[in-house]
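step 4 of 6: structure.
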Amino acid sequence: MGLRSPIELGPVTAVFVPFALMLTGVNLLAEVSNHVDHARTAGTIWVVIVLASPALAIMAATAGRPTGASQLWWLLTWTFSLAAYWLHVIFAVGDIHGGSLASVVAKQGWPTAGYNFAVTVWWTVDVALGWAGVRAAWVRWQRVALAVVLGIGLFVAAVVLKDGVVRMLGLGMLVTVVLVALLFRVRRSAPSATP
Amino acid sequence: MRRPVRIALVALNVLAGLLLASTALLVLLERFSWYEPARALDPRTAFQEGSIGTEFVPLPVFEALPVLFPELFRPGGVDPVETWGFVRRQDGGPLPHGFTVSHLRPLSAAPSPVPFVGIGCAACHTAELRNEDRRLVISGAGNASLDLIAFLEGFRMALLADDSDGRPRLSYAAVRDSLGRSFGPFERVLIEIWIAAARRALTAGTTRNDLPREDPAALRDAAFQPIGPGRTNPFNTLVTMQLGLPNTAHDVARLNHGYTKIPAVFGQGRREWAQFDGSIRDLYARSALAALTLGATSEALAHPQISHNIRAASDYTRNLRPPPFADLVGPGPDGAADAERIARGAVVYARHCASCHGTPTADRSWTQGPRTGEVIPLAEIGTDPERVGLRHARRLAERLHLLFTDAYRDAYNLVHPLATAREDLRPGPAGEVRGYVAQPIEGAFARAPYLHNASVPTLAALVNLEPRPVSVWRGRNTFDAQNVGIAVEEGPAAHLWHRMDTALSGNSAAGHDYPWAFDDPARDEQALRDLVHYLKTL
């Protein structure tokens, strides 16, 4: 079974069009840079962070169990963020490291490289589970764990280890997740208007 | 959802999809169609035709330049190769010897649908010596005829030239029409983008470099092009490009006059410290920094093909030997007498020259002298001081080191394949350089003109057998086998366009008065003649 709510054109457009525009922009910027491969690799992570921010925010707001319209928004942003992440992996491994996984490990070390490989697989599986509509309890908890692991990983990579545009995006992701989660909690705990 | 809204959303998605598909197509074309796999060129090929990251113009544009701008590239109808002192290719092709063609874009070395022309090692470090009816092309000799700076200035003039209506004379349409052929869509787009970007970059650079002169004749006038054939002014290029400081060419009082001849690169492996001032130790760094001076970026130099070519071309020079003098002049008229003069000359050399320049061995190797490799202080050698008086020398050495190490690592989280240790650049931890380094002089006959600034035309003048000329007309000088060096002829002439005046700053022919100064009472003319005979054999 798939999604519990229909796939609506509006949300699809709201996610796909920015996804396409951002990737096009990133590639055009890369073409005029002095290091095309690096610019593409770095730029795709920007797209990952921008699209992962609402997905992580929805996860935080719904405690890992989005329903209704929020489920569709979460799945769309989560899926396209993963698509951008796969492009990042292809550019990084294929162009920067010449297609050599050994080169990736040599540069990053086993802990970091292992984390990156694991997250790539885990995230892909989770998106597949999301589109399949599997709603078992273990799926929810692994999804929450993934969101925490990925969220922390993106924050460390973007904010702690880097500066410039990617740090701003990472901070924006953090603010988005915290604000949306807080607003959602406030709204849920507010008394009903009817007596 | 209302129908018009639905239609609009569908259209948006379709457009976004097409945009994404176009981007994907571009990436795939770069990856699979335009991409040239790195080739492990052998050292000689890398030196002669390997890209070193100096791509500067699309090949079709380069081919069109002499047609569109004959006043700049073939004045008087003279072939462009001859005009600017390049060496002609052995295969007779239109590009000068040593010019490279690759599918690498300038600055980034990213794949290109259009081939780009670059300036390789052999363009500057190959010389053609002409003695009567004999012609000898020497790989590794500095090209004393090449007026590189004037050629590049002519290139700048062409890019910035406008017609009477104020429109650029150089355009895709002009290139297409002059060559009589059209190009595919990607080639056309790239040529148009390149022309626009190059004009923009050069226009922005006019705040540092001033506008080029309008009169093409200025390119051949030493008053406006003081550097002249066979020389560069590398510090000016590095100071403007790497330190971002102004080129003070318009401020004569502050202009750096560190004119330096294009050097021979024989036997680079036996030189611990190279460049005329002994400022670079690492062999690969010498070549990488030379490429940088010609416009390569650290990013391009990190490209696998380019970094391989840099290393391979450098390795080619490690044990590179010059040909014998007899290849240029033929067998001597009197072998026995020549042998006697050479033997006497060897004695003079051993007494007055070997301590600094070392001595050749029977197997054509070289034995160092006590001072070989030492930076001889300026006060002692007495040659032109401009080269070693650059006030930005330390700042420049720091910047060049960081460019390939910390700056590259910070920007890209990668280690540059041509990174060099700070200790291999001077001034720095390994000391200062306020003098000129004493080096072996194998192939002495092929190193003309002499001194670091090419101010002395012949060996006879260098050893003060003959007086050093106050001025020399330079260009495609023929070879003077008698005095050993470039022929001093009356000018101007079709093949001699630059009057080098040794009274001007940076051009001094003073100093290095060994064995004796011209006015030294101890000066022995016979000994000097014997010495010149001996020097021919090195």
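step 5 of 6: annotate
 - Chain B has a mean pLDDT of 93.
 - Residues 3-33 of chain B form the longest helix (31 residues).
step 6 of 6: archive
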